[in-house]
Amino acid sequence: DLCALPELTERAILESLRARFRQEKIYTYIGSILIVINPFQFLPIYNPKYVKLYDNHTLGKLEPHIYAVADVAYHAMLQRRRNQCIVISGESGSGKTQSTNFLIHHLTALSQKGFASGVEQIILGAGPVLEAFGNAKTAHNNNSSRFGKFIQVNYQESGTVRGAYVEKYLLEKSRLVYQEHNERNYHVFYYLLAGASEEERNSFHLLKPEEYHYLNQVTVVLTSETSAPRVFQQISVATKVPPEPEPERWDGIFSLLSAILHLGNIRYKKKTYRDDSIDICNPEVLPIVSELLEVSSKELIFNYMTRKNKTTRGHMSKEALNFRQAGTVRDSMAKSLYSALFDWIVFRTNHALLNNKDLEDDSKILSIGVLDIFGFEDYESNSFEQFCINFANERLQHYFNQHIFKLEQQEEYRSEGITWHNIDYIDNSACINLISKKPTALTLLDEECNFPQASNQTLLDKFKRQHEGNSYIEFPAVMEPAFIIRHYAGKVKYGVKDFREKNTDHMRPDIVALLKSSKNAFICSLMGIDRRPAADTPTRKRVLCLWSQASLNKLMETLDQSEPYFVKCIRSNAEKLPLRFNDSLVLRQLRYTGMLETVRIRQSGYSIKYTFQDFVRHFHVLMPHSTPPTKSGIREFFRRSHLPPAGYQVGHTMVFLREAERQRLQTLLHQEVLRRIVTLQRRFRAVLERKHFVNMRQAACIIQAAWRSYRERRRFRQRRDSAVVIQRRWRLFCQRRCAAAVTVQAAWRGFRERGRYRRVCASVTRLQALGRGYMARLRFAEMKEERKRLNTEQNQPSEMDVGPMEDLLASEQAEKEEQSRSADETSHKNRSKRESRRMREL
Ligand SMILES: Nc1ncnc2c1ncn2[C@@H]1O[C@H](COP(=O)(O)OP(=O)(O)OP(=O)(O)O)[C@@H](O)[C@H]1O
């Protein structure tokens, strides 16, 4: 922060800035004002890491950065519920547009919190489209914005982006038909010619850049056009975003751009030397133009050669145009068409940026506006455009002075009893009055535009007469048609040539009517939206002193209703060389922007003031409970807060603070609020955790109970199942044992019974044998008796009869042996069986 410099001189500031620049620190604070020195080299300080780093910090806590300004504006908007604006100023090529882009990027990133909605994408996507149509290469800047823009990002009260709105200021139309040496026309023409496909080339009659008069007046440089097709595609996609995906619109844009270029190729010649009447040298161009614009070629020729005039009796008369007039008509038509197209692009962008929710509910919208307006310009030859641009810069510088110097040094200090020494600064009110306050420069210009006999010379004469003796305007000593204005940034000489013409709208009503008759709906609609009043307005009555009239005042009103932040861009060197610091160039810019005075006033002035009520309301968190909003109460607070006494003063009804002290208090407030938030969070989290814990414990008990009962059931089931199995096995075992026992018993009984049986059998057999033997013996005895009796009877016993008896006895003997042998065997077997069973049992 330059306010912290021990020695406050131009040199000290310059050296400090240079030393920082050498370390690639391009950002420096003066209190809450940010100075940016364009490095002309991309530094790695804009990646998402930095977006995160600069989220929600007080200014000055971290290294100065453009993101810090965006962040502070964003949080101030949310805290104070007030709109904020960031005013970026600096001369051409100082980095305003680049800074705007960084700001918009950060402002949308802050709102996204990780997820990008469509609106943010559209806001970021609108940039390249507007740049293509409104930027051009100039001697000072290869991508110079030739229009001013105020981008207003709208937020919901929650801080999320709701939509955005772009306001454009004064497009430099003259560039379309004429460019200075080393400059170019608008980028979009080169993108179109380099990026169009072969089919598009044929259907839109596209030629090479050097074949167009509007492009070939200076050497056409197409070196950077390697990226043109890509940019062209990007633009074509961006302009097709919903809600109007009409491809014919894009075709309409192609046709219009091509028609403008072909229009510029129309050349006139005088029919005869003495006569003023003219002819078109290349009539073959007209059918192409009429085809592209889809208007009648006969009407087109008629309008390019003649003009309708209203006679004093109210009739319309036809007047042939002279050579100069015809050229003017051609160029003004091209300019008006391009301007209408640019208006449409802005309108279209706004349409896409306008979130439909805006229409649905009426909740409060907060906004942060970023103003990127063309820088102060002082070229070799300056014309009406530079006059308007520099006037706008005067107004902005005035706005800056108001906020930084004037508001701080008002009567208030005295009436509040504040000790104060005024700091001098360059007040540019007189220069603004010279240009805009009646009956001065712009009103004279308007008058001369409405007066048919007037010329630029008569305008200059009026200037001279009216402002003789005014120290802010001078006239060159030699008879030069020019005047010099002493701006806050230095003297600038303006040539009055074309002043009147450039200040008036030359789009004639009959040409508007012709374009409105176009069969191309897009071209027709362009005329409808933008030019409707012109058709009814007499030529030369529509004065376009945009800066003296409505738009600049409206901008100033918007800025006045917002809390401003200032970003001062400084060009480091004229040659656009990377990281080159040119002392004299930087010093010149520091001087004319009043940086030294700014540092002084920021260092010693009380830039912040609060009423007692506001102060207590704002900082009540730091104060004991029920601190009264009175002088004594606030003094007591300051006494206890140990702020350096020079940093604040308590007036009769207000508290005055220096920026550093405000920041200190703000930091304390921030810390205290954070501490309380943390305490609250801690308690709340503890409650939540306890609740959570109780719930968890309950849940754990339920789960445990369920688990245990389940486990027990499962165990019981397992036990029951295994018991059943065991029982079953036991039963099986028992059954098997029983069966075995039965088998053994059966075997034993069988064995026993068999033994018994065998014994019985043997006994029976023996009994039978005995019985039979007995019987046989009986019979034998009987037979013997018989034989004896027979023999006795016959007296001679026969041998033959004895024989059978002996046989019988022998067979009985054999049978006995056999029986005893089988009985032996059976007993042997039984014995061995018994033995083996005994063995098994053992
Ligand atoms: N922060 C930056 N880092 C790197 N390069 C930068 C930075 N700012 C600007 N530049 C370079 O400087 C060039 C000019 O910047 P820019 O177009 O933003 O200037 P400007 O002030 O808007 O000019 P004009 O008023 O003519 O539109 C850019 O094209 C870019 O190359």
Tell me the β content. 5-15%
- The CATH superfamily of the largest domain turns out to be Kinesin motor domain
Strand order of the largest sheet: 1-2-16-3-12-6-7
- Tell me the CATH architecture of the largest domain: 3-Layer(aba) Sandwich
Question: What compounds are bound to the protein?
Answer: adenosine-5'-triphosphate
End-to-end separation: 113 Å
So how many helices? 29
Please give the domain count: 4
Count of distinct strands: 19
Task: Based on Cα principal axes, name the global outline.
Answer: elongated
Q: Structural class, please? A: alpha+beta
Mean pLDDT over the full residue set? 79
Query: Which fold name is given in CATH as the topology of the largest domain?
Result: Kinesin
Q: What's the CATH class label of the largest domain?
A: Alpha Beta
Sheet with the most strands, sense and barrel status: 7 strands, mixed
Radius of gyration: 57 Å
Helix content: 55-70%
Secondary-structure map:
Layout: H1 10-22, E1 27-30, E2 33-38, H2 48-53, H3 66-80, E3 84-89, H4 96-112, H5 118-134, E4 135-136, E5 144-145, E6 148-155, E7 161-169, H6 187-195, H7 198-203, H8 213-216, H9 228-238, H10 247-264, E8 268-270, E9 278-280, H11 285-293, H12 297-305, E10 306-310, E11 316-320, H13 323-353, H14 357-360, E12 366-372, H15 384-404, H16 411-415, H17 429-436, H18 441-450, H19 456-467, E13 473-474, E14 482-487, E15 490-495, H20 499-503, H21 509-516, H22 521-536, H23 550-560, E16 563-571, H24 583-592, H25 595-604, E17 608-611, H26 612-619, H27 631-641, E18 648-650, E19 654-657, H28 659-794, H29 799-841
Parallel strand pairs: 2-16, 3-12, 3-16
Antiparallel strand pairs: 1-2, 4-5, 6-7, 6-12, 8-9, 10-11, 13-14, 14-15, 17-19, 18-19
Helix pairs in contact: 3-4, 4-5, 5-6, 5-9, 5-13, 6-9, 10-11, 10-13, 13-22, 15-17, 18-19, 21-22, 28-29
The structure holds adenosine-5'-triphosphate.
GO cellular component, one term: axonal growth cone
Binding site for ATP: 90-97
Subcellular location: Cytoplasm; Membrane
